[in-house]
Write a structure and sequence with these properties.
By secondary structure, the chain is an alpha+beta fold. The chain has helices at residues 51-59, 81-84, 101-111, 116-129, 145-157, 175-192, 203-209, 227-232, 237-242, and strands at 7-18, 24-36, 40-44, 66-71, 74-75, 87-89, 163-167, 195-200, 212-217, 220-225, 247-257, 260-265, 268-274, 282-287, 293-295, 303-313, 318-323, 329-334, 343-347, 354-357. The protein has two domains: 7-237, P-loop containing nucleotide triphosphate hydrolases (Rossmann fold, 3-Layer(aba) Sandwich), CATH 3.40.50.300; 245-357, OB fold (Dihydrolipoamide Acetyltransferase, E2P) (Beta Barrel), CATH 2.40.50.
C-alpha cells in the first residue's frame, strides 16, 4: 500500500449485524465521506451511533455489508487489514508489557521485514515526535498512562501509514492528561501531514482537534461540517442537543418571516432563526446556556422572566437554573452572582435562538 494519497473515499458504506429473532440492523448505514490528505476528521456521537463500526470498516477489521472504500483510484475494502497499511491507536493502548518502549514501537516495522539498519532511525524519529526520547528502554508498566498512549501513537506512525485511525484514544486518561495528550495529537498530526480519522464521544475533543466533524446517530450521519458550523449551526435538533444546547423548548409558532420565526408560550415570547422547514403550528427551540444573559431589568426583546431555582458555582461563572411562571426550566451560564429565589430576566439574541420542527409532547414549554 502506498504511503501517500490524495483522497480516501467512502461511498455508501454499510455494516449490518444480526439482531434478535434473526432480524438484521444497520450499525452503519450508507456513510459517504471523502477524507483529503492532511485532514483531521472526527467521528462524533454517543455510544452505539456507529462511529467505531465505521473506523473498523475503514481499518478492515469488519467486512462491509454494502458500499465501497477507495484510496484514490484503488479499491481497498476487499483488502485485509495488513495490506491497507493504516496506523491504529486503540483506547486500551494494546502495548506488549514484556517489551521495552523501543521494541513496542519497532514491532510493526519488524513484522513488515524492514531491515534493522532502517528501523533504528525511524524509531528514533517517532520517539522524538511523541517527546519520549530518553524513555526507550523502559517497560510499559514503568510509564504513566499518558506516556503509554504516546508509545501507542509512536507505534502507529512509525510505519509511515497513509492514514492514522484513532479509536477513543484518551478515554482512559485523567482530565489533565487528556488535555495534554490532545495537544500532542494535534501537534503530531500537523508535523506528519497525514490524514487522521478520530473516534470520540467528547464534543470538546472533536471541536479542538478536527478540521471537520462527522456527527452520527443510530448509524446515520447527521451533519458533516467544520467545528465552527457544528457548534453554532447544528443541522438538526439531535446535533443541537448533543452539542450542548440544553435549553430545548416546545413553543407555538405565531409568525414566520423568511428565516425569522416568532414563537411563544403564555410566559415566553421569542424571535429566532429557522434552521429547517416547519410543519404545523408547533416548533422546538434550542438555545445554549452561554448564549443567555441574566439582567435585573428587562431588555427590549427576547426576554423571559423567571425565578432562580438553583445555582452551581463554576469558578469564573455559574450555571443558573431559572424557572418561568409556566414551569419551563432554563439553564443559563452566567458570570454574575445571583441569589437563590431571586426574580430575574433572561435575555437571548434572536440569532442565538435556533428553531427546528416540533419534537416533543404537547406539554408546557420546556417540560419533557
Amino acid at each position: 500500500m502506498k504511503h501517500d494519497f490524495n483522497e480516501l473515499r467512502l461511498d455508501r458504506v454499510t455494516r449490518r449485524f444480526a439482531g434478535h429473532g434473526g432480524h438484521a440492523f444497520n450499525a452503519l448505514n450508507e456513510l459517504t465521506l471523502t477524507v483529503r490528505r492532511g485532514e483531521f476528521i472526527a467521528l462524533l456521537g454517543p455510544s452505539g451511533c456507529g462511529k467505531s463500526t465505521a473506523l473498523n470498516c475503514i481499518a478492515g477489521l469488519l467486512p462491509l455489508s454494502g458500499g465501497t472504500i477507495r484510496l484514490d483510484d484503488q479499491r481497498i475494502d476487499t483488502l485485509p487489514p495488513e495490506r491497507r497499511g493504516f496506523g491504529m491507536v486503540f483506547q486500551n493502548y494494546a502495548l506488549f508489557p514484556h517489551m521495552s518502549v523501543v521494541k513496542n514501537i519497532a514491532f510493526g516495522l519488524r513484522m513488515r521485514g524492514i531491515a534493522q539498519s532502517a528501523i533504528a532511525p525511524r524509531v528514533a524519529h517517532a520517539l522524538k515526535l511523541v517527546q519520549l526520547t530518553g524513555q526507550e528502554h523502559k517497560l510499559p508498566g514503568q510509564l504513566s498512562g499518558g506516556q503509554q498512549q504516546r508509545v501507542a501513537i509512536a507505534r502507529a506512525i512509525v510505519i509511515e501509514p497513509p492514514l492514522i485511525l484513532m479509536d477513543e484514544p484518551l478515554s482512559n486518561l485523567d482530565a489533565k492528561l487528556r488535555l495534554e495528550t490532545r495537544s500532542e495529537i494535534r501537534r503530531i498530526h500537523r508535523e506528519l501531514g497525514r490524514a487522521t480519522i478520530y473516534v470520540t464521544h467528547d464534543q470538546d475533543e472533536a471541536l479542538s482537534l478536527a478540521d471537520r466533524i462527522v456527527v452520527m446517530k443510530d448509524g446515520v450521519v447527521q451533519q458533516i461540517a467544520n467545528p465552527q458550523e457544528v457548534y453554532a449551526q447544528p443541522a438538526n435538533l439531535h446535533v443541537a442537543r448533543f452539542m450542548g444546547y440544553r435549553n430545548v423548548l416546545h413553543l407555538d409558532v405565531s409568525e414566520e418571516n423568511g428565516d425569522r420565526v416568532k414563537v411563544e408560550a403564555p410566559d415566553i415570547k421569542l424571535t429566532g432563526v429557522r434552521k429547517l422547514p416547519l410543519a404545523g403550528k408547533r416548533a422546538t427551540v434550542a438555545i445554549r446556556p452561554e448564549e443567555m444573559t441574566i439582567a435585573t431589568a428587562p431588555a427590549a426583546e427576547n426576554v423571559i422572566a423567571g425565578r432562580v431555582d438553583n445555582v452551581e458555582y463554576g469558578g469564573r461563572d455559574s450555571l443558573v437554573d431559572v424557572v418561568t411562571r409556566g414551569g419551563a426550566r432554563l439553564h443559563v451560564r452566567a458570570p454574575v452572582h445571583v441569589a437563590m429565589g431571586a426574580d430575574v430576566h433572561v435575555h437571548v439574541p434572536p440569532e442565538r435562538v435556533l428553531v427546528y420542527p416540533y419534537d416533543g409532547s404537547d406539554s408546557p414549554a420546556g417540560i419533557p
